[in-house]
Specification:
By secondary structure, the chain is an alpha/beta fold. 51% of the residues lie in helices and 14% in strands.
């Protein structure tokens, strides 16, 4: 397995492409705007003008796009991945998307003699750059094992979660935990600031105790510095939380914390914050620094 098609060369995708090339794979990429991927082209990735050309002749095809409708488009639209992939190829969707869509893709791909895995990731842009992503894989175990070298080029915590769709279920559970943890960080920072604590000292004091968390380590300093550059977009996190609530509702589970955090983020998105990083949740607690909606 040497030739890889890659669709979704964005904030995380670029680093994943680079790490795959470092591991010796030949990368073929597609992007709507070639100018946005000139850097990875100059580093050795082969650019294609169409998805079909990117996919044909590849041993595996990896996708990491934005929303479920994007997954539908790149896989199911006429002339796209399912129509163009060689029989026997491995199709790996690393987008966080609907478990039902992952099952649909698996079923349709299997009918065509393709090996389909859902393999969403967590670790953000930092993990993508470092090649330390957590990768959550659903599908046939034999296909997971065949693709393990690919996953090892991009991540370090790689786990087989079960049948098709289980990778997505694990990722949604992960996002539920992040929603609560990051909300807690923002509320604590708001409280500490209001009470006049030195914020650098505050972060140093709580980071190694029982309140310590990955969200605090990653985003606490950025929140203090008012750095809202996206490692993971608010608009994409909103999508993930909605998917989790849909699945929870189907099972009759009440997720009150997730529902509240989603409502807070949706309010910020309505005010123009959708393209900021998830740490911009702190703006919900600061009336003076809300986002301005672009006219």
């Amino acid at each position: 397995m040497r030739q890889i098609g890659f669709i979704g060369v964005g904030i995380m995708g670029k680093s994943m492409v680079r790490n795959l090339m470092k591991a010796g794979y030949e990368l073929h990429i597609y992007a709507r705007t070639k100018a946005k991927v000139e850097d990875v082209i100059s580093e050795g990735a082969v650019f294609h003008e169409t998805i079909a050309d990117c996919v044909k002749g590849r041993d595996a095809v990896i996708t990491i796009v934005g929303f479920p409708q994007d997954v539908e488009e790149v896989y199911f639209d006429s002339g796209n991945i399912l129509d163009s992939a060689d029989k026997g190829a491995y199709l790996i969707d690393m987008t966080t998307t609907s478990p039902m869509l992952a099952e649909k893709l698996y079923e349709e791909g299997t009918k065509r003699g393709l090996h389909v895995l859902d393999a969403p990731v967590t670790g953000g842009d930092t993990g993508a750059k470092a090649g330390t992503l957590t990768i959550l894989v659903g599908g046939d175990k034999a296909d997971y094992e065949a693709c393990l070298p690919l996953f090892e080029a991009m991540g370090t915590n790689i786990n087989y979660e079960g049948k098709a769709g289980c990778g997505q279920h694990c990722k949604l559970a992960n996002q539920i935990m992040i929603a609560g943890a990051l909300s807690g960080v923002c509320e604590a920072v708001t409280y500490a600031k209001e009470k006049g604590l030195d914020m650098d000292t505050f972060l140093r004091s709580v980071s190694t105790g029982a309140a310590g968390s990955r969200q605090l380590d990653l985003y606490g300093p950025k929140i203090i510095a008012e750095d809202y550059a996206p490692g993971f977009f608010i608009k994409h996190f909103i999508k993930d939380m909605k998917l989790a609530l849909i699945e929870a509702n189907k099972s009759g589970i009440d997720l009150d914390v997730l529902s509240q955090v989603l409502a807070n983020y949706e309010e910020l998105e309505a005010e123009g914050c959708g393209d900021l990083g998830t740490q911009a949740l702190i703006k919900y607690y600061d009336e003076e620094h809300r986002c301005a909606v672009e006219e």
